[in-house]
């Protein structure tokens, strides 16, 4: 999936050198990725804002546990065993990795009066609420981990079908704008979630269900108010069997090189991002000399400070990439910016340095989340028939890092552990920075998009 291909592609060498910006003819360099398809009509404001609100709601419900709620519950169930958080989040990402392409193919082939995407959003919301109850009431670490796996499957299905909807409907001229707005929303959502969680930190049920209620409400608005055409009349050239289904988990990178480089760049960026964010609560507790429970309030305040930086990165990057019709430079810059923020945090020992590093990280995440999403839609293969399948395949680029990075992170944390048990967060954050910088550089290999 991410093996090296021919010239019109990103290099997967350990540290590719930036290539000069050269205007090219997309059809010559990557015909499979840019084959002519019917022009999509611009979407209206109602679709855009309901999409923004729905993704915001999903992230409030879904990322709040990852940001703080899981750490609080884990500290109750297994004090001092923070490495369990890596195992829990890794198991959830692994479950998504196994199921995403299958669910994407199923979405492409669903034939209902409600259309192809909405039934999966509804089912995902139901499973998502069940998962939050399981995590809130879990009597053991094993049950807590099971709840997180269910959350990944439920809310992940909702989010993936929202993203597939943008692939179905957005013309090129609106992709950066919409990705900027949704990127901003999905980065601000965890801030809102952490604030909500900090308000209910002493009540486990409310800690999980209040953010979940926000997700259900805002996603339901999209499902109810955004019409999707009846898909019961859809026909397909081939019937699915187990062999064909398994083959849809793979594709030939030589046919779609630019999609492959987008996949690889996203993989490196999210590997670094996952290393950086999985242990945030424990990292701040260690550097500031406070308990993990007390960190919830500190993170809420610090996260609020990052809203302006995230706004500048997501909306500014998304809108400018549409206006200038350039994606690669913005994605590359986002990796460098986030890497600088991670280095500053790694070297910090007080609040001002942590704030400075966090703000840079927020700027980089916002820019990457917006512009790389627009870039993905630009190079997405077989949009008319297999959008769900390829969106499922691209999800490997986030689910594999989210699965592997938390399992590897304890190894880095254990290097040179002090007699007092102080973890090596410096090494962890430096490696995270290197990965995000590499993810930004890899995008320069794409040739069909400037």
TrEMBL record:
Signal peptide: none annotated. The chain crosses the membrane at residues 47-72, 84-107, 119-142, 148-166, 178-200, 206-226, 267-285, 297-320, 329-347, 353-377, 389-413, 425-444. Residues 50-450 form the Major facilitator superfamily (MFS) profile domain. It is a multi-pass membrane protein. It holds the Pfam family MFS_1. It is found in: Cell membrane. Keywords: Membrane, Transmembrane, Transmembrane helix. It comes from the Bacteria. This is MFS transporter. It comes from Arthrobacter gallicola.
